[in-house]
Amino acid sequence: MSDAPAPPRLRDLPLDDRPAALGLSDVQIAALRAGLSPAQADRMIENAIGVFGLPLGVAQHFVVNGRAIAGVPMAIEEASVVAACSYAAKLARASGGFTAGSSAPIMIGQVQLLDVPDVEAARARIAAEADALISWLNEDNPSTRSRHVRALHLETRILAGDPPMLIVYLLYDCGDAMGANAVNTACEALAPRLEALTEGRANLRILSNLSDRRLAWATCTIRTDLLATRTDATLPPEAIAQRIVEASLFAERDPYRAATHNKGIMNGIDAVVIATGNDWRAVEAAAHAYAARDGRYTALATWRTDAAGNLVGRIELPLAVGIVGGATRVHPAAQVALALLGVKTARELAEVIACVGLAQNFAALRALAMEGIQQGHMALHARQVAIAAGAQGEWVERIAAQLVAERNIRLERAQALLKQQTPL
Predict the structure, then answer these.
(1) pLDDT tier at 31 (50, 70, 90 boundaries)?
(2) Quick check: is 279 catalytic?
(3) Right CATH number for 10-102+215-371 from 3.90.770.10, 3.40.1050.10, 3.40.50.720, 3.10.50.30?
(4) Among residues 288, 331, 377, 381, which one is catalytic?
(5) Is 377 a catalytic residue?
(6) Would you say the C-alpha torsion 124, 125, 131, 137 has a positive or negative sign?
(7) Could you tell me if 169 and 107 are in contact, meaning their C-beta atoms sit under 8 angstroms apart?
(8) Using one digit for the tens of pLDDT, what is the confidence trace for 263-286?
(9) Catalytic residue among 78, 195, 212, 254
(10) Is 120 part of the annotated catalytic residue set?
(11) pLDDT digits (tens, 9 = 90+) for 289-329
């Protein structure tokens, strides 16, 4: 059990008071309020015309490897995700929180070689020169020499077909960066030397987003007695645990269910990746490719019961994220997000993100196995429907509550209620 004090209940505080309750400074609060300016956006992408905002929420109750996190920032437009992650983290906290780990931040670059006259001989020459090529990248080439990232190793693979291809894999330790720019630069620098060695022609020279040498994983235990529900006292906690395990097995065995299972995981993961200024598209690509690594698409997270009957969850997936470079150091809100997390390395960030994915998966499976996904989700969605109908101020909550009570969360009904303009 964690000895960390419980975090403040942000939902009970006014919106303007929440950042200070998390310990953010006035400067950090101002950065959150201002967000990304159009001028900053213009320096980040071409043809900028403005800024597109997303709600930035904070998931609470996370304890990762014994460290309590003030709040996990999540940029997401979908209702219920932040609350669901917080709820799951609170249950896990009762058993000590999450235990997480990660492998070294190794990324893979690929150089595609074509028209190689003797592929096997070319592979032998590359193997013989591999150490010299790595040394050249790390020590002698100005565009790739760095104190923060390093080339590690070269591997080769032959892809049979017409035309046959010789692929050179460049393994790179990217330190605290995501590493795309460093790896792409190294692949381009290496290509002419590989052409000379192989007498072939280099075509693509680029990073692979299947970052399966850069994994993060997390586990947690949820006490079964905490699964009791006030809405259905007839369903014992042990039955809820069994249903969650059965739902996990469904996703592990069926790719159609696994796709939705993993989408729910990515609801949590993507939100943190976006909030910290990292590349959520790269993380998505790696996660889904990894889920199919054995030739069949399957679940990224699994749940079982232990000898005491408690739920034990585990997640593992590639997580190529950084805390330096890219938007993480350009976007002011991303800098605040990283400060709020209190992470010191890219690996630590990846571990926290894995925990969020596992938490979101548990919350989704619990909802599916009990009242169904719609009850909690649609209650929060009702607010958005009320706003879309034109409700303002106190009418947002009043109309949303009426929509939920009627179990009729439709725009037309919200508009009709708004036209009445009478107490509900």
Answers:
(1) confident
(2) yes
(3) 3.90.770.10
(4) 377
(5) yes
(6) negative
(7) no
(8) 999 999 999 999 999 999 999 999
(9) 78
(10) no
(11) 999 999 999 999 999 999 999 999 999 999 999 999 877 77
